[in-house]
Amino acid sequence: MSWLLLLPPIVILLTAWLGNVFTSKGVKSWYPTLKRPRWTPKGTTIGAVWTVIYLLAIGAGVRYFNMARDPQTAWLSALLFLLTAVLNVSWSWLFFVRHRLSDAFWDAVILECSVLTLMAVFWKVSPLSAWLLAPYAAWTVFASYLNHRIEAMNR
């Protein structure tokens, strides 16, 4: 199972890269045309928050997979970790590439459920790993609400 220690950094780096590729498709051209709440964070703030979240997710995953002893549970956790990454990337694609604000919102809601489930699974082996994912869960709630407000303002 030691090879699973490579999964979190590889998955998170791919998630960050793909998310950036998709975000860059609309952030300079389409996104500025949208009406947004006054409290919308600046892009640099959003980028900094995601950087911290991704670093914490790598730490959470590496710690969890280092401590996990049951191979079947570790495999299922790895699949859940991958699903969370796919949902994260798909949000960027739906929002910035496809401009499907409602679909992006529901993707974010499912992403939140996935992060919370991952926290619950990690908690059984490493409560610290679960806590390291708490900012991910909190930011996803905020981002979902922001997505919802942007959608409502641009109907």
Task: Compile the SSE list and pairings.
Blueprint: H1 7-24, H2 43-67, H3 71-97, H4 101-125, H5 127-132, H6 134-153
Helix pairs in contact: 1-2, 1-3, 3-4, 4-6
Total count of helical runs of at least 4 residues:
6
Q: Please report the first level of CATH classification, the CATH class.
A: Mainly Alpha
Distance between the termini: 49 Å
Question: In sequence order, what are the helices and strands, one letter per element?
Answer: HHHHHH
The largest sheet, given as strand count, sense and whether it forms a barrel, is:
none
- The number of strands is 0
The percentage helix is over 70%
SSE class: mainly alpha
Q: What can you see in these coordinates?
A:
This protein has 155 residues and is mainly α. The protein has one domain (2-153): TspO/MBR protein (Ferritin, Up-down Bundle). Helix content is 78%, strand content 0%. The chain has 6 helices and no strands. It has helices at residues 7-24, 43-67, 71-97, 101-125, 127-132, 134-153. The longest helix is centred in the middle third of the chain and has 27 residues, at 71-97. The protein is elongated.
